[in-house]
Write a structure and sequence with these properties.
The protein is of the alpha/beta class. It contains eleven helices and 18 strands. A hairpin with a 2-residue loop joins strand 7 and strand 8.
Amino acid sequence: MVKRKILAVALLVLFAGCAGRKEMAVIKIPRQLSLDTGTVQRIHLRRSADISKPIPLLSVTAVGDLMMSSWIINVVRQKGVDYPFDSTRALLKSSDFAIANLEAPLSDSGVPFEGKKFTFKVPPEFAAGIKNAGIDVLNLANNHILDFGSEGLRNTISTLDSMQLYHIGAGVDGNSACAPTIVDYFGIRIAFLGFSMTFPKEFWASDTTCGTCYPYERKFQRLVQQCEQDADLTIVSFHWGAEKRTTPKEYQIYYAHKAIDLGADLVLGHHPHVLQGLELYKNRLIAYSLGNYVFASYSEDARDSIVLQALITPNGLLSARARPVSVYNADVDFQPHLLYGKERSAVLQRLNELSFDLNNGRNVLNMDGFILPNKLVWREEQHTEVAGEK
């Protein structure tokens, strides 16, 4: 973990470089999750000294769908569990917390869900690569986490707990599935919530059945409001939208706005496998779809994505940066690579176009990928920069 930087200049430098997190006298305590409890899980981290912090500040790195099944299995067994993350590890480790969507159970057993076209499971030993990559929090609320039933889910939770990896969005019943993870990090309380709005509906947890957390309106409101009261910062992760669709559906916008209205400080989305726009709403950042990350696919439609870095405070977004990556596995062989030059500019330009209408006819990114909430860039200025670069 890096020490939190207080000066804004130093914070921006953090996103410009790729230095790893310095190991401090901070110990992550495993969640000790009981499969029979639905209570809010709190993790208390030990700090070596008191830190003066007038405004809580947190650096977060977010990536999209992480699924190491199918074609990836043989590659990882040949090249090692760290291989898929080698090119992006420095980015993940540069922040206080890194979060991803775990798209398949970590399990060697379980019965495939009947009637589902695609079912995936990942060898549990691959979790070591996730841990070594610097990922801290995994959203389990998605349409594949129960591909191998309750046994697959239980094995996943057990594996993640043994690796001291935090997780949200799924459990043995509705209460445990929806329970936030609240982390005490140097005296700053961060709440993480995960929700799935994807089919099959049978994957949604009930009072008596395991599954993912669906954001039923009253429950959703209660959960986010409670996190707002219990934590300094709240990060909400949604699995939603339509695959290959580059614009958010109306309900995505509704729930993203509602989450922020209720107190969320950062909203992260995934499931479409492609990028959707970024929105600044009430000075908070919404990423409707982060696209794929490490993912077992050769899809021509999912060729690029971003690693999103954000600096958030209770007063809103301080700054953020979108770092374009290639996830086209015919080229990168299941190891996302940062893009540079014209390829990077093309992704950022397209992301600005996807974000334009969401931000009342303004761009949110400059051509270095920075998102500065108080300095939105006019579309005409952005086109001038791109033309000049060419």
